[in-house]
């Protein structure tokens, strides 16, 4: 049966108009995509700095700076939540025994807590309190391995971060053993690593950028955020592109 010219033209018009409409819908969906990042760690994640013997969380911290940089590049559809808790270790995050005031799910074991989170990317930063609490590198290795494997099993993209160095040479030597475990886990589990320990240690006079024996000044937090951005931003881009 022959198609009448009017019907053929109408069909062709519908097909041609459907193409830009589909593209517009695709663009709208991409614009609405939300990338959520959870940052877990100790007081250096929380953002504590010290001045004249008084230590307190600062608005100018690495997590806040990271969100600023990501939003400058991708807009407010990218958000970073700060779940840093002072004085905590990776084992406490794993077991749910850290500060229960750090969010409604803070008292839950890691698997349950992470399952309840909509975040696609998870930053993990520990090591300093492991030194201060005399934990062994092997214990730290086991805890971080569990954190990473669990995140992957739940469909999250984990990013490990080594601690910033400590000005005390004796403590810093012990911290280096913890840092080695973080690097080992990242290599074995093939996850992204932000090696803050190596980066900061390479800076001239880096000790002047510390506010005390463990916590950076705001300027160093900004430098840490720049290192985070170099690793995290490509992951965000791939999520927005649908390739991660």
From TrEMBL:
Q: Where is the signal peptide?
A: 1-23
Is the keyword Repressor assigned to this protein? no
Please indicate which superkingdom the organism of origin belongs to: Bacteria
Keywords, A to Z, come to: Signal
SGNH hydrolase-type esterase domain boundaries: 39-222
The record's listing under InterPro entries reads: Ester_Hydrolysis_Enzymes (IPR051532), SGNH_hydro (IPR013830), SGNH_hydro_sf (IPR036514)
Q: Which GO terms describe its molecular function?
A: hydrolase activity, acting on ester bonds
Give the protein name, as stated in the record. Answer: G-D-S-L family lipolytic protein
Lineage runs: Bacteria, Pseudomonadati, Pseudomonadota, Betaproteobacteria, Burkholderiales
């Amino acid at each position: 049966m022959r198609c009448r010219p009017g019907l053929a033209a109408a069909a062709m018009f519908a097909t041609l108009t459907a193409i830009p409409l589909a593209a517009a819908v695709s663009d709208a969906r991409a614009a609405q995509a939300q990338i959520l990042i959870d940052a877990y760690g100790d007081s250096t994640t929380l953002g504590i700095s010290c001045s004249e013997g008084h230590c307190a969380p600062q608005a100018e911290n690495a997590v806040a700076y990271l969100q600023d940089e990501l939003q400058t590049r991708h807009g407010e559809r990218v958000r970073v939540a700060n779940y840093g808790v002072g004085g905590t270790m990776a084992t406490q995050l794993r077991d749910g025994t850290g500060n229960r005031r750090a969010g409604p799910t803070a008292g839950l074991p890691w698997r349950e807590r992470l399952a309840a989170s909509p975040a696609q990317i998870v930053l993990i930063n520990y090591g300093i309190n492991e030194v201060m609490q005399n934990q062994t590198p092997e214990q730290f290795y086991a805890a971080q391995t569990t954190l990473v494997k669990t995140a992957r099993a739940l469909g999250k993209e984990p990013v490990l971060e080594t601690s910033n160095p400590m000005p005390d040479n004796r403590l810093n030597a012990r911290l280096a053993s913890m840092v080695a475990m973080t690097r080992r886990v990242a290599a074995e589990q093939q996850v992204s690593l932000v090696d803050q320990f190596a980066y900061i240690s390479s800076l001239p006079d880096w000790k002047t950028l510390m506010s005390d024996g463990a916590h950076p000044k705001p300027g160093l937090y900004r430098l840490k955020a720049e290192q985070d951005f170099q690793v995290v931003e490509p992951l965000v881009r791939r999520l927005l592109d649908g390739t991660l």
